[in-house]
Amino acid sequence: MIKAPHSEPTDPQQALPPTAQSLRNLKIKHTRIAHLMSDLHTLVYPGSQDSLLLVCGPTGVGKSTLAHYVVETSLQSNEEQMSVNAGLIPAVYIEAPSSGENEFSWRLFYSKILTQLDPEFMHQMPRASFGIDIESGRMVRPRTSSGQSLASLRTAVERGLRARGTQLLVIDEAAHIIRQTSARRLEIQLDTLKSLANACGAQILLIGAYDLYQLMSLSGQLSRRTHVLHFERYRQDRPEDERAFLSCIRKFQSALPHLWGDNLLAHAEALHENTVGCVGTLSAILMRTARLIENKEGGSWSVDALRHSLLTDAQHKSILGETLDGEITVIPGLLRNLPKAPRRSTSQGRYVA
Ligand SMILES: Nc1ncnc2c1ncn2[C@@H]1O[C@H](COP(=O)(O)OP(=O)(O)O)[C@@H](O)[C@H]1O
Ligand SMILES: [Mg+2]
């Protein structure tokens, strides 16, 4: 959740300085998050035609953090209805199970949703009914006819989502659903999701790295029918991005002043460069730095602690390469062009736009 930094004890006598660990609780509602939340606020509403929405961006930009924030915000805004109807779950977050080398497991996917809708679900369902070997605990092809078992899980999910009044299903790591599929099956996989959304009157928000967008765009039909939002990094060649990134560094800096004083700002440019402008990567680097300082004798700031925490040149090169490739694919696909309105003649014979 995007919330204020860890609250401190109120008694100054007992006030302990925050630790590296407390950075975990600091979720900055930075410019990109605010913009994406506002876009989603416009796009997600009962009766919307956009049954599938997609958010994609580079690794470490903060996509999973956004996904949790979207769900929590939805729960907060429905607090009143939830207090009247305790069974209501307006938004659900799940991470798509990784398919590894095999095909995507819809059984596992549906059972994950059911667990969110009812934590008791896993205990109530006979484990064999969704393909788990009772002795080894590993996924197996169910003994029942697979179609039947899958169909009953699907029905249970549809019923569950409707019964819980779920309006939004957020699926993180959504590329797992389509990664191993052929172009032909791609549309079938996504139609399965679309029909799930339609059957329950819910919207589905798919979240993933650029490969999700690249996979989706293999099908022209899908990319035409899906609304895409770009969770972009802060670029160094845009002054407004630089300012926004700097403001994030400032927030991290003021969370642990006893560890680094105002030394982080002095390295703002290097941090922007090394993190490729991704706030999640910045958070990970500063968390490592803070821990290194804490574990050092005397616990005082050193540039070495920061240097040790940066991405290596190889990591940086690979993330930057992936990000630039992703941007090249996504940005042109998002351009919108409103042709100029035709000039109309006024009663005085003049033309207006
Ligand atoms: N806005 C933010 N403020 C503070 N920390 C953040 C923020 N966004 C991400 N992080 C932290 O950065 C790390 C990576 O973020 P995550 O959301 O998992 O990125 P992604 O899913 O894009 O790879 C997480 O530990 C997360 O808590
Ligand atoms: Mg993630």
Total number of distinct structural domains? 2
What is the ordering of alpha helices and beta strands?
HEHHEHHHEHHEHHEHHHHHHHEE
Task: Give the count of helical stretches.
Answer: 17
Structure summary, number of beta strands: 7
Shape, per Cα inertia axes: globular
Strand % is 5-15%
Distance between the amino and carboxyl termini: 46 Å
Written overview of the protein:
The structure is a single chain. The protein is α/β, with parallel strands linked by helices and 353 residues long. It folds into two domains: 28-230, Rossmann fold (3-Layer(aba) Sandwich); 234-333, no CATH class. Helices cover 52% and strands 8% of the residues. The protein has 17 helices and seven strands. It has helices at residues 31-43, 63-77, 79-84, 106-117, 121-124, 146-163, 175-178, 183-200, 210-216, 220-225, 239-255, 257-260, 263-266, 268-275, 279-295, 303-309, 313-334, and strands at 52-56, 91-95, 168-172, 203-208, 227-230, 344-345, 351-352. The strands form two sheets. Strands 2-3-4-1-5 form a five-stranded parallel beta sheet, with helices on both faces. The protein has a two-stranded antiparallel sheet with strand order 6-7. Helix 11 (239-255) packs parallel to helix 15 (279-295). The structure holds adenosine-5'-diphosphate and magnesium ion.
